[in-house]
Amino acid sequence: MTDHCTQSPFAVTAPDALWRYALATYGDPAIASACLVLQDRADADVCELLWLGWLDHLGLVTTPCVCEALAPVREHQTRRTYPLRARRRALKPHARPGSPLADWRERLKHAELAAEREALEQLQALTRCGEGIRPWRSSDGDLQTRLASHLGGHLDDTLAGALMTLAVGLQAIREPGGV
After folding, report:
1. Plot region of 61 (φ>0 → left; ψ -120 to 50 → alpha; else → beta)
2. What is the pTM of this model?
3. Which residues, in sequence order, are bridge partners of residue 106?
4. 49, 57, 62, 87: most buried, per Cβ within 10 A?
5. Which residues pair with 135 in a beta bridge?
6. DSSP string, 108-167
7. b or e along 15-25 (b: 16 or more beta carbons within 10 Å of the residue's beta carbon)?
8. 127-143 confidence digits (pLDDT tens)
9. What is the pLDDT of residue 15?
10. What is the SS3 assignment for 62?
């Protein structure tokens, strides 16, 4: 796998490499905004979107059998991350600054972030063992096309715009956070 990568093998095997990449890329307001639009309007998993961007940096793409490989990650997200996010969002209108609910909401936010970190660790593990991925070929198309395919459907203008913003932003970031 690493013979075809555009970066050193250290980028795949370094502890927390995908986590550091996700933090660096999500720190870009345009990328964060695009991810949230895709999450809220297209039920996209932000961890998976950022993973696809990371794969692109590594010169890798997903294979048709990626859904099988992603099943445990998606189960984790469904059971842990999404319920935490729903609870945190439900508290938002009621959590006044300095109130006990604001403190509780902040704790939920940290728990949600920890759950997302675990999902990213699982995605990095898939990458390390090569499950559901292979080296990129010119016939695979660009990142925007692959992201759209991953979302699996027709995108309205707002979603297509968010997807384009995400793809351009992810491709513009090189060696984020020393990854």
Report:
1. beta
2. 0.89
3. none
4. 49
5. 60
6. HHHHHHHHHHHHHHHHHHHHHHTTTEEE--GGG--HHHHHHHHHTS---HHHHHHHHHHH
7. eebbbbbbbbb
8. 999 999 999 999 999 99
9. 82
10. strand
